[in-house]
Hints:
Layout: H1 2-9, H2 12-21, H3 25-53, H4 56-80, H5 84-99, H6 121-127, E1 135-138, E2 142-145, H7 148-158, H8 166-179, H9 181-190, H10 194-210, H11 222-245, H12 256-260
Antiparallel strand pairs: 1-2
Amino acid sequence: MAFTLAGCASTGSAENLANKDDPYENVNRAMYNFNDKLDDYLAAPVSKVYIMITPQFARTGVYNFFSNLKNINVIVNDALQGKFIQGARDSQRLLLNTTLGLGGLVDVATDTGLDINIEDFDQTLAVWGVPSGSYLVLPIIGPSTMRGVPGAAFDVAANPSTYLGVPIQLVSLLNTRATAEGSLKFIDEASLDPYVFTRESFLQWRKSLASDGKSDSSMDFGDDLDELNADTKEDGNKGKANDQNNSTIKHNLDLSSPLKQ
Length: 261
């Protein structure tokens, strides 16, 4: 995705398309910078201390616990989207991890083939035909869209961890930040403009979730690669024919010819 987004960012048409999704770019950039500074001076240092003093198995258990609670959100949105078979499997996953998984601390469901699904109210609104609206960067929360704001509010209300108290929620946020450490470093180091990279990644990710991974043709490179290979083979065949027909001058070929080919 990094190479794909870098290619898109280098073309004027892709930039214009992105601007249509991001009419409030100046405000969003300011909020992005605010969140970035807040992360640098507060979240990142605390996260590093958390990683140092908390063993990996404990962080994994915390992640599994809160992920298991989110399955309730997933099941509700499965029903709202009419995904009843998937909802049944997600219900089995919740039951299995809550019982055999010691309240969700251990993810035993994945080993049985019950993979985790990501469903939220933003996706439900997309299935119902609600457009995503403009791209937004919210304070502390980060990337979102106009449709994502009410979607996030519904998900917060439906998530049991919301009612476990502030200390428990802080542990969840801290563990989430620690888990994202590698991804955040990648964004800062691999992109010329982290804001654009984050925006394009987020919008494509949300689009993929809303369509259950059935992305449009712009993300399908199979046909383009086949066409490129076919053109390359055709050019190679033409080159061989020309060499045979012009064997008397093969030692005098211009260097630019093979380079162009």
